[in-house]
Write a structure and sequence with these properties.
The protein is of the alpha+beta class. It has helices at residues 5-9, 37-52, 59-76, 130-137, and strands at residues 26-32, 92-98, 102-109, 140-145, 153-160. A hairpin with a 3-residue loop joins strand 2 and strand 3.
């Protein structure tokens, strides 16, 4: 699950917020299966990771955003134009990265299609509000296509967090 932060960040560098990957203090990653139970697994992974990192104060917001990003990846990122699933293994991966006062949640999927926000005005709709919720609960978010050997894109959300007591603050 957990890996070296700098190595894991290599494919994510382009398009992430202006944070130095070399200064990441904690990083964790998990592969998610191409089925909707993965949303629950992503929430459990996020809860366990944030508990270890002592970031409980933002758990509700982060969990909601992770759920939306993973749901979008499963719903929109796993089929190609002809309806086939890309052969990338794993098809969806969740990355959690912590800097002293910031947390980034990034979800990778094999689609090259840009994320599109639905109509946030229709609150009775059962879908289409995911990116509106991400925008409402995260401090910022964005996406970028992957390059190199990885196909697809990464959609990320950034959260401001309180520094962990007893851990030295890194320069910004």
């Amino acid at each position: 699950m957990g890996t070296n932060g700098s190595t894991m960040l290599e494919p994510l560098r382009q398009g992430l917020p202006p944070l130095d990957p070399a200064t990441v203090s904690d990083a964790a990653s998990c592969a998610l299966p191409p089925r909707y139970e993965a949303v629950r697994e992503a929430r459990q992974f996020t809860r366990g990771t944030l508990d270890r990192w002592r970031l409980d104060e933002r758990f509700d917001d982060v969990c909601l955003v992770v759920s939306e990003l993973v749901t979008n990846a499963l719903r929109h990122g796993l089929t190609t134009g002809n309806g086939a699933c890309p052969a990338q293994d794993p098809p969806v991966r969740l990355h959690l990265m912590r800097w002293t006062e910031r947390l980034v949640c990034a979800v990778r999927d094999p689609s090259h299609d840009s994320p599109v926000a639905g109509d946030s005005e229709d609150f009775s709709a059962e879908s289409g509000r995911g990116l509106f919720l991400v925008d409402s609960f995260a401090d910022s978010w964005g996406w970028h296509p992957l390059g190199g050997a990885l196909n697809g894109k990464v959609v990320w959300a950034l959260f401001q967090v309180e520094p962990v007591p007893g851990r030295p603050s890194a320069c910004r």
